[in-house]
Design brief:
heterodimer; A: mainly beta; 6-stranded mixed β-sheet; 4-stranded antiparallel β-sheet; 10 strands; globular; B: mainly beta; 5-stranded antiparallel β-sheet; 11 strands
Chain lengths: 114, 111
């Protein structure tokens, strides 16, 4: 079946602009996660959605970052007033249930802030 | 100090060699230990997982967890050029849901 998809695959933006990244999880997966992978660094947890529960936003690095999820489907990660340090690969993952070690990752969105 | 430490390499081995990858960690609450493989420009994919201590084998791959030393390993036997990728260790506690990743080790298997 179809895996996790993300769009765009690449995004180049100017410092100070807003960007929106999209994630389509695997159908039927109730949990959705966003991670960030900066060059030479491990994946950093950003935010977690589980069903209709309030999301865990504890990993968001600043208030310029926000995310939404519509029910158990699409999620968007928005970065406002982008900074050069926001340059990274943003990865989305989903799992059939919350709190699962088995997370299925999308290919990521490579964001470059110039 | 990061919760999960992993030598980024790169590690280069000839085809057929045994590869040993490892991570150390500091959080004793971690109970799930995973290895993800990430090819260039792709998302990570789960390779193996182990719950608590012990060994697990799957084909050419063996995962080991030593909780007393807070040390985990992944062994690849008869390595193939197709094994060339970045290997990420990841960990999670029983009550958690976010994976805690190491930086990843870049592996190159040369023919």
């Amino acid at each position: 079946g179809a895996g996790v998809s993300q769009s765009p695959s690449n995004k180049v933006t100017e410092k100070g602009k807003d960007v929106e990244l999209r994630c389509d999880p695997i159908s039927g997966h109730t949990a959705l996660y966003w991670y960030r992978q900066r060059l030479g660094q491990g994946l950093e947890f950003l935010i977690y959605f589980q069903g209709n529960s309030a999301p865990d936003k504890s990993g968001l690095p600043s208030d310029r970052f926000s995310a939404e999820r519509t029910g158990e489907s699409v999620s968007t990660l928005t970065i406002q007033r982008t900074q050069q340090e926001d340059s990274a690969v943003y990865l989305c993952a989903s799992s059939p249930i919350g709190g699962s070690y088995e997370q299925y990752f999308g290919p990521g969105t490579r964001l470059t802030v110039t | 100090q990061k919760e999960v430490e992993q030598d980024p390499g790169p590690l280069s081995v000839p085809e057929g060699a045994i590869v040993s990858l490892n991570c150390t960690y500091s959080n004793s609450a971690f109970q799930y230990f995973m290895w993800y493989r990430q090819y260039s420009r792709k998302g990570p994919e789960l390779l193996m997982y182990t719950y608590s201590s012990g060994n697990k084998e799957d084909g050419r791959f063996t995962a080991q967890v030593d909780k007393s030393s807070k040390y985990i390993s992944l062994f690849i036997r008869d390595s193939q050029p197709s094994d060339s990728a970045t290997y990420l260790c990841a960990m999670m506690s029983n009550s958690g849901y976010a994976l805690n990743f190491g930086k990843g080790t870049s592996l190159l298997v040369t023919p």
